[in-house]
Every structure is written in C-alpha cells, then in structure tokens.
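FYI - complex with iron/sulfur cluster, inputs then prediction.
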Amino acid sequence: MLKDYLHKIKLCAACPKMCRFACPVAEVEKKERVTPWGKSLTAFLVLEGKLSYDDPDVVDTFYSCCMCKNCKSYCLVDDVDIPAMIQAGREEIVAAKKEPEEIKQFLVHFKEFNNPFGKDLKTPHPSLSPEGRGGLSDVLYFTGCSTLLDKDIFNSTINLFNKTGQGYSIFSDCCGFPLWASGYAEDARGLMAKVKEAVLSSGAKKIITSCPACAYMLKSIYPAIGFNLSAEIFHISQFIEILAKEGRLQFSRKSDIDTAYHDSCFLGRYLNIYDAPRNILSELAFLKEAAKKKEYSICCGAGLYHFKPKTAKGITDIALENIKQADAKQMITACPTCKRIFSEALADEISVKDLTELI
Ligand code: SF4
Ligand code: SF4
C-alpha cells in the first residue's frame, strides 16, 4: 500500500531534488511532476487526500516511470525507493479501476498468450515440446518470455549448455514481471503461483535466466511475497563466469572489434551485476566504455513502450547517444529486452548482440 511508503515519500517530497537530472522520463517530457521528486510529492498529496486517482494527471504521474532506478544512484536520502513507491501506487490505481486505457489493453493483450507480446512464442521452438526438453537436471534454464522472442539468444544459450556438458531442463513461461510492474498484482500473483509450482516440481537447485528482470523477480519479488523457490538464481553472465572458472568453458580468440557494453537497469542497478559481463567481454572483444555506465547507465526505455511509446522512444534515443560516444562498432547487452529495443532503433548502424552470442 502507498501509505507503507509515507515516511520515504515525505523525505523525498522535501528533498532539494538531488536526482533532478537523473530521470529519463523527466528529461524527455520536461515536466516537473514526473521528476522523482514530483512523483513523491504527488504520492504525498494523494495520501493527504489533496489529490486522488480520479485526476488523470495523478494516474499519468504513476505511469510515467520506467522503473529504471537511476534516481537511486544519485539519491543520498536513505531508503527512498521511487520504483517501489510507484509500484504500490499502481496497485492502488488498478484496484480502484482507474488505470489508463493503454494499461487495460495491455492486460487483455497479455492474457491472450500469457506474455506481453501478444503472440505464441513457443511453437517456433521445437526444443520446448515436452519430448524435446533437455531432460532431468538440477539446472533449470528459465527463459521467460523475452528470451523466446530472440532465437539467437535462446540458441546460443542452449549451445553453451551443450558445449560445456551442462544438463538442463527448460521453463519457458513468463515470470510475471510485466503484470507486476503494471500494477496487476493479483494477476501477477496467480501467474507466479503456477510458476512456483512448476519450478518446485522440476527439482531445480539452480535457475539460470537470460533476462535480468526474470532474475530479479525470482530472486527478490517471489520470496518477498512468500514464494520460496528453494533454488539459487543466476543470471547467465554469472553462470558463464562459473563455467569458465571451473575450466569447463574456454573463450574463443579475442576479436579486435571495438565493443561497447550496455548495463541493463535490472542486471545493474537492481542486481548489482556489473563485473561478470565485463570480465567475459574483455576475454572476447576490445571493450570500450560508454560515458554513463554501471550504476549511471541510461535505461533503454523498454518499461514504457506499452503505454507511453513516444516518451519511451525519447529515452531510447538518449541511451543510444550515450552508447555512441564510446565510438564502438558493436554493442553488447546481457538483456534480451535491451537487445530488442536497441536493435530496432539502430537498424544496421551498429550491430547489437547478446553476450551469449559472442561465445
Ligand atoms: S529520489 Fe532521492 S534525491 Fe531524488 S528527490 Fe527523492 S529524495 Fe531527493
Ligand atoms: S525509476 Fe527511473 S523513471 Fe522512475 S523516477 Fe526513478 S529515474 Fe525516473
């Protein structure tokens, strides 16, 4: 509930806006109310009964956050967590049936195929048929939905498991993040309960994801709502490092192509994984860093494409400008969503690949 964040909201609403220039939404929309401070002040006035979810601007303010957590990197005020507060507000907006039409449409779209892309993602992957699964193993490759959309990431990850003799089984349903982040907490919980049952019955002790948002959901949100998966969660970049340290994986010869790495919000700011992808990349390519990197990396904008595409595109453009400053010939991400957004925006200007595709 939003009132659970009252103390933090008060701290933020009274702050001299130290993160003012950190918010990509505010940078694109140029409105005070969508800055992190503006969001907290709006939340405070809702809690004080001075504003309500009947006001479309209030609702828009709560949906004007790509949950990138960049404000947190500049915030010196303990415990202020804008995305968590935004999430709580969105849940209340949905409960009051006041969410924007685009969000309602998103839910309808999601329910058709149980993913945010509104299409069947499994049929094109023969390995996901029951007889084609990788067999019993205590390692579960949790593709989620966004990885299925990118056959190159899926195939290179499966090749990696096969090449290193790593047994695996596959789970390919959505982790629930898109519903949860949109404020559809009850729908998300229903989906997550099914995921939990499937994961527990698989007997997995290690879960590997390609998608950083899946890793964050499984590692942090599932246990937070009482869904213990009894397994260690790894992003694929961490697992590759383990395979290399165990001597099960040798990197191929280093290419001299200038390569920029983009830190995804969830892998970086949420999971604090900055070194693993860089350690791997530095064995495979000539790494050039973007001006804003690691905890200051700029969001690709993905979190807003469903309901504010113009703002999302503006954020993507800012992120690309940052990456282009590295003057690299290729861009590597460790997130299927970042790869999709940047590939579509860049066309053939710079090649965009996932880390696994280099191995
Ligand atoms: S997020 Fe932190 S730095 Fe930004 S306005 Fe709020 S308290 Fe201040
Ligand atoms: S999480 Fe990102 S989009 Fe949301 S308020 Fe913070 S900086 Fe802005």
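The pocket of iron/sulfur cluster (ligand 1) is lined by residues 11-12, 15, 17-19, 36-37, 40, 71, 74-75, 77, 80, 82 (CB under 6 Å). The chain has three domains: 2-99, 126-245, 258-358.
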